[in-house]
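Action item from last meeting closed. Structure (481 res):
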């Protein structure tokens, strides 16, 4: 494969940016033509249109009309994660696996810590039912973009999905890509994460090739099923029997959907075990693009790395429940206790979006830390894990592919008013308050909760060992929440 201008063959962030420079100039030209005074453009920028190189002003206006008015401190979750959590909390033991419990743990964390949770799956579980159980409007369901292909949002979403083919094409066609390149590094890290959580060596093709890829390439791919997929249930029928590459591809698809919404993607650890690597990669790229605005630097200056102690909310809720029906009221109570924490996080994000580490933002950070400690003391029960505010982490999963990197470079160099460039940059590399979770601690707490889990769901004693072994595998990961 030629490597002179091939971004995937780049060995360093600098080489990667150089290979994207020509595309970035085209992006900058398009951005400069937009009318920054147009409210639709500003709204669409906030919607996270990372694929700006393929978006027209008309697309942006249509995207702004499609996107719901999200409040701050909201997240997007997989409909599968939401649906499986609802079924587990309804007492349906058929969905109980070691990995579906991690879905439930992610679900519980976001119910407590997020103002709104968006998902595309009203047909799987109605938002009204979830909100009734919580006694508060927390969940918002969205239409499936794949069922509305004539919309601008659907077209941009399909473009994002198409970039996945670029990522796996060298694998399928068996191109030789030297070690140390951007592509080889990404493939190695994804395969290594899957190796950790499956407990066996996983080849790159297994880690990335999805069932749908059978229709993308000739000759057909050989796909191997892994028992991990049996433990990671899905609510919808797939193209074929699920494989590890399906999980990787769905993570990419969910991140693309979240980008269009302008929201962080909040996956369960089991559905995106390689997430930490991409955040580190995003930081390397951001270091090379500091000619943009001060928003990210302000966050780094302010936050640094600060210790917090937060409870594992699923473990807390289970410890107080005598029956499965008791878990919903416990989650609602925890959400009420965390209200001040969520409000301070929203205020902090607003302050940092101005690009300044002001005295106000410093006071807000202190308030966030104080509320976090207070929340832990209220919850008690001995369930806790140490988390850190890490300014070095970007929003959920930052730019991974050359097309997105070219977009970021175009934003940095575009001749547009500073306020518009700041909004563009902040949206693409929004370093919101994130937590680097010590997953080993979370794994230990989940293991300790197994007796209560067994009693609530009637889990046969003989199955507990398999749950503990899977928790131990997940405990080897580092991830971003």
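Sequence:
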């Amino acid at each position: 494969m030629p490597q002179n201008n091939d971004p995937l063959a780049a060995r360093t962030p600098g080489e990667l940016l150089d290979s994207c420079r020509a595309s970035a100039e085209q992006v900058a030209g398009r951005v400069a033509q937009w009318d920054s005074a147009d409210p639709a453009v500003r709204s669409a920028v906030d919607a996270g249109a990372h694929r700006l190189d393929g978006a027209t002003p008309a697309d942006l206006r249509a995207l702004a009309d499609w996107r719901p008015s999200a409040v701050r401190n909201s997240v997007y979750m997989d409909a599968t994660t939401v649906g499986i959590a609802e079924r587990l909390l309804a007492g349906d033991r058929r969905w109980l696996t070691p990995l579906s419990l991690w879905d439930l743990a992610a679900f519980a964390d976001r119910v407590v810590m997020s103002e709104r949770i968006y998902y595309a799956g009203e047909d799987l579980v109605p938002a009204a039912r979830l909100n009734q159980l919580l006694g508060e409007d927390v969940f918002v369901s969205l239409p499936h973009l794949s069922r509305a292909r004539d919309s601008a949002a659907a077209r941009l979403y399909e473009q994002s999905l198409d970039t996945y083919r670029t990522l796996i094409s060298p694998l399928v066609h068996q191109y030789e890509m030297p070690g140390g390149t951007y592509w080889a590094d990404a493939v190695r890290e994804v395969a290594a994460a899957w190796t950790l959580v499956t407990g066996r060596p996983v080849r790159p093709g297994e880690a990335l090739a999805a069932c749908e890829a059978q229709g993308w390439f000739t000759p057909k791919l050989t796909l191997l099923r892994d028992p991990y997929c049996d433990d990671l249930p899905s609510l919808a029928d797939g193209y074929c029997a699920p494989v590890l590459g399906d999980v990787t591809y769905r993570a990419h698809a969910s991140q693309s959907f979240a980008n269009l919404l302008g929201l962080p993607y909040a996956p369960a650890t089991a559905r995106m075990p390689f997430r930490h690597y991409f955040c580190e990669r995003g930081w390397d790229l951001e270091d090379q693009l500091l000619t943009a605005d001060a928003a990210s630097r302000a966050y780094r200056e302010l936050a640094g790395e600060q210790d917090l102690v937060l409870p594992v909310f699923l473990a807390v809720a289970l410890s107080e429940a005598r029956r499965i029906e008791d878990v919903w009221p416990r989650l609602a109570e925890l959400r009420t206790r965390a209200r001040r924490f969520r409000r301070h996080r929203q205020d902090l994000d607003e302050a940092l979006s101005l690009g300044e580490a002001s005295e106000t933002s410093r006071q807000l950070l202190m308030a966030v830390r104080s509320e976090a400690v207070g929340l832990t003391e209220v919850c008690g029960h001995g369930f806790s894990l140490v988390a850190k505010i890490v300014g070095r982490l970007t929003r959920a999963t930052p730019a991974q592919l050359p097309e997105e990197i070219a977009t970021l470079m175009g934003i940095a160099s575009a001749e547009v008013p500073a306020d518009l460039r700041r909004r563009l940059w902040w949206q693409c590399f929004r370093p919101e308050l994130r937590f680097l979770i010590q997953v080993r601690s979370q794994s230990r707490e989940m293991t300790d909760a197994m007796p209560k889990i067994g009693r609530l769901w009637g889990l046969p004693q003989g199955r507990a060992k398999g749950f503990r072994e899977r928790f131990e595998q997940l405990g080897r990961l580092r991830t971003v929440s």
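Note appended to the action item: Residues 48 and 262 are 4 Å apart (CA to CA).
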